[in-house]
Amino acid sequence: xxxxxxxxxxxxxxxxPRTALDGVSLTAEPGxxxxxxGGDGAGKTTLLRVLVGRVALDAGTRTAxxxxxxxxxxxxxxxxxGLTVEQNLAFVGGSYGVDAPILRERTEQLxxxxxxxxxxxxxxxxxxxxxxxKLGAILAMVHDPQLLVLDEPSTGVDxxxxxxxxxLAAHAAxxxxxxxxxxxxLDEAERAAHVxxxxxxxxxxxxxxxxxxxxxxxxxxxxxxxxxxxxxxxRGRRFRELWPPGGPPSGAPVGALAEADxxxxxxxxxxxxxxxxxxxx
Amino acid sequence: xxxxxxEVEHVSKRFGAFVAVDDVSCAVGPGEVVxxxGANGAGKTTVLRIALxxxxxxxGGVRLLGRAPDREARSRIGYVAQGLGLYADLSVRENLEFxxxxxxxxxxxxxxxxxxxxxDLVGRIPLGSQRELAFACAxxxxxxxxxxxxxxxxxxxxxxxxxWETIHERAEAGVGVLVTTHYMQExxxxxxxxxxxxGRLVAAGSRAQIVAGTTAVEVRAAEWARAFEVxxxxxxxxxxxxxxxxxxxxxxxxxxxELDRAGxxxxxxxxxxxxxxxxxxxAGQA
Lengths: 281, 286
Description:
Chain A is α/β, with parallel strands linked by helices. In chain A, 31% of the residues lie in helices and 27% in strands.
């Protein structure tokens, strides 16, 4: 893939007395989807707003294309409620100075990809939540940006529309666009090419999802009851528990070793950030 | 076998010519955590409203806690809406006291988890704490059955873990739990899943049981972007996971034929479908 990566190095953002981003670095490559994942207050939105140039850094550096080569779909609707789907695209495309013939072609491609073709004459206000999110995403893509940033595009969106949204992001990446999206759901982040897990403004883990999962910080067991509740979390009726790299001491009432997924890694790293070093029982 | 807390039998609901719910039967027993999944417009909310007696079925029957879903039955239900239903400009303690008084309960103790936040306005506390408070409010009157709408949406890993701990503790004490969710991570916390599409119950069982019967083809290609474009252009249901292209519910040979025609070299392998892929297939069939 050609093109320059976008990202930040050692980014710090303070909001009043709070540090919203505290030494975060991210390199988002062209032609790939990068997922920024974390709960509320993790710093996802702040990081995305830094990337698109809407929030200034207190320290650190930012690399991004010129503003007119950036597309951003904020977590709130991001479309004009009173305009139809097609009018929204025409308005946003026009404001970016996209030539009329190219805009017409892009409009058709994006409506098709988003499954919104039959709804082109419907006012945005009358779209379902999922359709409205898809409209927000394609509005951010209409001028074929180098950097596409989607803030929680799938929150509250049904699974079928969510697949459409992922496909839209993948389409953009396949064309060479740098795609950065945030999510609070780890199963979603696991599908990205690169994932950055944030917690309270700090990075918990970063890399290829498989590499992040592969670097589980210790040993994981699964059993009916936790041995040390402070180091265990639910998976349905059973518990998963974090042990030091050497594993649980012999004779501890633990179950089988479990295969970690991204959620386990994030739980384990969150608990380590919370309690310090993993303790022996 | 213990009697179910919720029994929905052959329920249908028509709005004029539109069939919102079509012959749905399901049950939730004591101590069970059941996930209800479906696309928007699949009929989840309508079924839920009928189950709680807020909407009359066109046909079929509902029993909630062994009786018709009336006010008396509803008074023993706990509900946490996605919007949480808290009062943002009341404190944590005031929210708890208000909900207790509505249910005719004595003035509640503030749970330990909120000791430091008791006098903070709810609008100012973190989302994870708000969700935990919404649970505490919904459980104050010791309900026998609780309905939770995307209970852990938007919170961090540790807060999510604490919320599921609360849910499972109640289930282990015999409370029946129905979770409506869009999220697979939440579905994984349930004992059993119900999947709706176009008003019908199209699948039920564990996640593994539901995805059984649907496979996906995983395409690994050096030119993955081209593979993605070629398969998209052929109108196949493609998604991307990292740089692997996935095609759900299409025979491997058909995928290979498209790639060969475009001269894209790739390795193809059948893999288990994800539950989203299964839902997309079911929604397409329904």
